[in-house]
Design a protein that fits this description.
TRASH_dom, four-stranded antiparallel sheet, signal, three-stranded antiparallel sheet, alpha+beta, globular, N2O_reductase_NosL
Length: 190
């Protein structure tokens, strides 16, 4: 009897401890047909620039650019955020914002021209900087004091009244290729 009581008590304690582990937040898929940025109301593409956050009460907000997610945080605070996610620039895998490494340069083309791309590890971010010859490595903590200015020249390719087209008028091949690349003379002239 004592053995069963001890075992039952142990199972109860383990169950309670597991339940107290906190809520598990996961990134949700992007649906390009209906998802719009919670800040700029532009279409959220299922690409490397999509970000999202989930509040502690389970509401998910999606953004087309990391800068828009930052603006939401500035307006709404961060106390009610359960988890925030960014995408790895290379493979589009969702990663926790706090664990990502970021590269910033005003010449990097992103949907809302904030010039920040995210990576799941420092080595990938360093490889991007080495390949493109521009960029400053940053952590999530560094972004807290970042200026968050948009590159006005980078925004010239956008029609703010319509959804992201990611087409030829924005320096891409019509399939999103070209975004994230630092502007070169050929991009700037387009």
């Amino acid at each position: 009897m004592k053995k069963w009581l001890t075992l039952s008590l142990l199972v109860l304690c383990v169950s309670i401890a597991a339940g107290c582990g906190g809520k598990k937040y996961e990134a949700v898929p992007i649906n390009e047909e209906v998802d719009v940025c919670a800040i700029c109301k532009m279409q959220v593409k299922d690409d490397a620039y999509a970000t999202q956050l989930t509040t502690k009460d389970g509401k998910t907000y999606k953004f087309d650019d990391l800068g828009c997610m930052n603006e939401w945080k500035q307006k709404n605070g961060t106390d009610d955020i359960g988890m925030d996610f960014v995408r790895d620039y290379n493979d589009k895998e969702w990663i926790e914002f706090s664990k990502a490494t970021f590269v910033y340069d005003s010449s990097i083309r992103t949907p809302m021209a904030y010039g920040i791309v995210s990576f799941k590890d420092r080595e990938s971010a360093e490889a991007f900087v080495a390949e493109h010859g521009v960029g400053q490595l940053m952590t999530a903590a560094d972004l807290a004091s970042h200026s968050w200015k948009q590159n006005v020249q980078g925004m010239e390719h956008m029609d703010m009244k319509h959804s992201h087209s990611h087409g030829p008028e924005d320096g891409t091949d019509g399939h999103g290729e070209g975004h994230g690349q630092p502007e070169t003379e050929s991009h700037a002239e387009m």
